[in-house]
């Protein structure tokens, strides 16, 4: 999104900057036209780092809802004035929408109402601007004209005075901007809900983005959170259909937004994010300059890029927006399900397509974490949902704290089957996050579901990401793109919880569900980092471990069944052939020559593995000699031989015992009753 500027947006100290259609998001050319003689930079006694530099007392205060409540309990008039100031404009706006609809003027007034909504949210302050930002990513929920207006909330909020920004820089970094930076734009390049961004240059030559926080931010946000928390408590206590802890959800949001107001914390988040995800192909994380970062000032590498929603510009640059969306989805999966540290605010202003085709992440203020048991629970839930294992899905909801452990799941399991069958469609390719959440919402009021606080930000992140994806490609399905990664994790992750989940998924009532294994393998091979050698090694390691004894027993049983059936059919076919040659009427028609069904499944699985990138039959063959000499393999062979011998002996005894039984009078040999009944 462009921010119109001119040559008055110049370097304040000894030079000028020409800005041509500049924008912090679709950052265009910014050229230095005169040499700048930098002022001397203060030489600190010791270099400061994000972890050791002195913090403002506000940081130690953090988000404390009880302290905030105590503060405003003595100021009821201020609270009521703000309450009226919030809800009066909202009521007025929705009343005008209703009147437009009654008078048939909705289309005629749509542009006016869209601008009115954007202005209203801007005036209401940062908390409501963030709501508008979230709505700006949902073309499936918001009409196009409203969407266009709300998009400006991402980086075109009215700025605050430069003098205030420069004062904050001096207060936070200990020197005037002219000494800290070699260059700095006179006016902000963009302004968002919590701060505004200037472009600058360090004395060492690097181009940087300088983010400065808005004045009075904590006070205004604390008051809004206090009011919203009071409403959440009122709704939870008075509306019986609401079972979720809305107060806890508000506290989770409050903690994250207070952390976002500490730019030192944001810098640490960016460094951690880069360490965890910066190595992923086509992902770029800008460098943070800790020595020029404090609570209200953040200095980071300047990123030239284009919003993913600016399709025309991306096409002109030859950048595949759909590919970058897929890159973002894969990165988000690793954030949520692998390391648990995730970006909770991936709106279009925070995801840029760079000229080299990489996806750059910005704004690491609102981050959150998913605990290990929650990550595994989410993986299990997706797998159970895709495989329509609704009993397993119901138990997943208990693990994920959507249901209490004492909840009776008996009526919930068929309800899940009824609701999700509609959303799932015919295949994984049709999975859509919005349809899943819409269908699930219908269950929230009928059964004792509740949304745990940690899940609120996960929903926000996924819904925002899918909104961007739908804007780029209306047919893009985030969950269908996610399932190959989920299948890969389930097959290759060594954690005991996922090993147990895989066992539960593949075995039921003593039978092996081959179709589910085939489905997992077929989907996992689409994952970018699917390591076939690792899968084979982990499978063999598990198979020959104590935990894999149940699987070895199952393989022995399947081999005994298959070989016994194959042996019987072979003998029967040979006997029939000899009888026909001698002119005798066969006792039985020839047995079908089709291989046992388990062997068919094994052949299909082998075909899937052969078609999987990275499969090398020669590498598999090198493992066979080692496997044959394992004690477990020899024991399995002995069990197979013993099982076949037992069956053969039992069949022989049964045949001998039945030989003396009378047969029906007829001109041809008759079958014993036991064989006729087969």
How is this structure best described in words?
The protein is α+β, with helices and mostly antiparallel strands and 678 residues long. The protein is built from 27 helices and 15 strands. It is elongated and about 110 Å long.
Layout: helices, strands, pairs:
Elements: E1 17-19, E2 30-32, H1 57-61, H2 65-73, H3 76-103, H4 110-124, H5 126-135, H6 144-151, H7 162-173, H8 177-180, E3 183-184, E4 190-191, E5 195-201, E6 207-213, H9 217-238, H10 246-260, H11 263-277, E7 283-284, E8 297-301, E9 306-307, H12 311-316, H13 321-339, E10 341-343, E11 351-353, E12 359-361, E13 367-369, H14 372-386, H15 390-399, H16 412-424, H17 433-444, H18 453-472, H19 478-492, H20 496-506, E14 507-508, E15 511-512, H21 514-524, H22 532-543, H23 549-581, H24 597-610, H25 617-628, H26 631-658, H27 673-676
Parallel strand pairs: 7-12
Antiparallel strand pairs: 1-2, 3-5, 4-5, 5-6, 6-8, 9-11, 10-13, 11-12, 14-15
The multimeric state of the shown protein is single chain
User: How many alpha or pi helices?
Assistant: 27
What ranges have pLDDT less than 50 throughout 5 or more consecutive residues?
1-60, 663-678
Shape: elongated
Q: Report the end-to-end length measured between terminal Cα atoms.
A: 75 Å
Key features?
678 residues; alpha+beta; 5-stranded antiparallel β-sheet; 27 helices; disordered C terminus
